[in-house]
Fold this sequence. Notes:
With 268 residues, the chain is mainly alpha-helical. The protein folds into 2 domains: 4-182, no CATH class; 189-247, no CATH class. Helix content is 44%, strand content 9%. It is built from 11 helices and 9 strands. The protein has helices at 4-16, 28-37, 45-50, 53-62, 71-92, 113-116, 129-141, 170-183, 217-225, 232-239, 257-264; strands at residues 38-39, 42-43, 104-105, 108-109, 120-122, 125-127, 190-192, 197-200, 244-247. A 3-stranded mixed beta sheet has the order 7-8-9, with no helix packed on it. α1 (4-16) packs across α4 (53-62). The protein is globular and about 50 Å long.
Amino acid sequence: xxxxxxxxxxxxxxxxxxxxxxxxxxxxxxxxxxxxxxxxxxxxxxxxxxxxxxxxxxxxxxxxxxxxxxxxxxxxxxxxxxxxxxxxxxxxxxxxxxxxxxxxxxxxxxxxxxxxxxxxxxxxxxxxxxxxxxxxxxxxxxxxxxxxxxxxxxxxxxxxxxxxxxxxxxxxxxxxxxxxxxxxxxxxxxxxxxxxxxxxxxxxxxxxxxxxxxxxxxxxxxxxxxxxxxxxxxxxxxxxxxxxxxxxxxxxxxxxxxxxxxxxxxxx
Length: 268
């Protein structure tokens, strides 16, 4: 097990200290990596491991205090940090099959094990991924679409974008993430008019996430409806007159090039 990028990040923090007083953060190194090594949400983890720009970007995150940034830049920063350190978590543990294999105890994931490891360094403070999502992003920004943007390294997640988030384009990017996840992955989210059935990802069910979308199945359906054109599908979602509302199976297979090839070949 290696800790190469975390060590680099911590070293940079100790040498430089947190950076403050800026109105934006330069995510272009991460943007370049995502454009080069992520295709339709599938990640080439080996390429991230080999890229010098990745530990350098993590070191920049580790030394930067996002508090002075404007709100949209802050949220874009935290989303990028979460996604970057999720990639780092996979690399640090040399995991090849599923993020849920990390920090198991007796074969059981204990206390959100992968997501509580404090490897995400921001502004000189180490966080677990769960802390970033539950204690910083959700309560501070109260933006339900972050559930389409934070990617937990699994096939069942919304796809990782092939670009970094930015404050200037955040609204556009979050809307597009919703469209991609809700309309572009029928195995996860779909409406079947013939049976008056609504199927949604367990993203809308995990923990207490449903309350971010209004707190009920009816509210979730109304939230989803915004990505549908006017018509019978949207009417069904907005009116709540479905016969079936079900959550689809969540695939925790790693969102890697290798696992995607195995799934395409019909094997795990």
